[in-house]
Design goal:
The chain is an alpha/beta fold. Helices cover 34% and strands 9% of the residues. Strand 4 and strand 5 form a beta hairpin. Bound molecules: iron/sulfur cluster.
């Protein structure tokens, strides 16, 4: 039975009691047949350059401290990036740019992220995806996005005591985040705010708790960076703004 076929209260994400438990449980999820097939096929066939790798081939959990004040949200793991290394944004050009920028502003211990055991640490920032399995052509279906959504909503709910700002890396992340933030206890305005690079929206908590500020940022994909749509300077500036909104110090 798929998670989509389960009543909302029976989604596997509802059975976990902590973010540590969620990070483990999500790696066993098989709710999306197409994505399970794709991620495992990529892990079996491998890219020629990575024939020596033992691919992860499973859903990729979030990375970074579980009490982070800032959360970055991407799209989904790359077939030969996160799906190979088992760490989000690790082993592909998008991740190279993102981790270098985090290092530049003082939120990462090193500028590169190449494997799960490379010693990288993030400071006050966690990175996650709305879809945890590598999709063909980096394009999950709406059903797959919605099936994976409760994992993100639950992750954000566990982090509510510490999160103060969230960055949506691209329009897909933005659209995925609005319902997830709402489910996790923040008020999303109507009409829904529109994605754009530099968009900022303050979302009050529904229970009087701390609000969270949502930032829009172009995705760090080669398509955006190679065309100059997103430059390293733009990325650094936006991440620094989001970090400051979260109360983090940058350099
Ligand atoms: Fe499970 Fe999400 Fe992967 Fe679908 S995309 S199989 S819901 S982890």
């Amino acid at each position: 039975m798929t998670a989509a076929a389960l009543p909302p209260s029976r989604h596997p994400a509802d059975s976990v009691h902590s973010l540590a438990e969620l990070d483990e449980a999500v790696t066993h999820c098989r709710a999306c047949p197409r994505l399970v097939g794709w991620r495992e096929e990529a892990a079996r066939v491998k890219r020629r350059a990575y024939q020596d790798w033992e691919y992860w081939g499973r859903p990729v959990p979030g990375f970074g401290p579980r009490d982070a004040a800032l959360v970055l949200v991407g799209l989904a793991p790359a077939a030969h990036g996160g799906n190979r290394t088992g760490r989000i944004f690790t082993g592909d050009p998008s991740g190279d740019l993102l981790y270098a920028a985090l290092y530049d502003i003082g939120l990462a211990s090193q500028p590169t992220s190449v494997s799960r055991d490379d010693g990288l640490e993030l400071y006050g920032v966690r990175i996650t995806d709305p879809v945890r399995c590598a999709p063909p052509d980096n394009k999950p279906s709406v059903t797959e996005r919605d099936t994976c959504g409760p994992w993100l909503a639950r992750e954000l709910a566990f982090m509510r005591p510490t999160i103060r700002s969230v960055v949506a890396l691209g329009g897909f992340a933005w659209q995925s985040l609005l319902p997830a933030l709402s489910a996790a206890g923040w008020e999303v305005p109507r009409p829904r705010p529109v994605f754009g690079h530099g968009a900022r929206v303050l979302l009050p908590a529904t229970d009087g708790g701390p609000s969270v500020e949502l930032f829009g940022c172009y995705h760090v994909s080669p398509r955006n960076t190679n065309t100059g749509r997103l430059t390293t300077a733009m990325l650094r500036r936006l991440l620094a703004d989001a970090a400051h909104a979260a109360g983090l110090r940058t350099r």
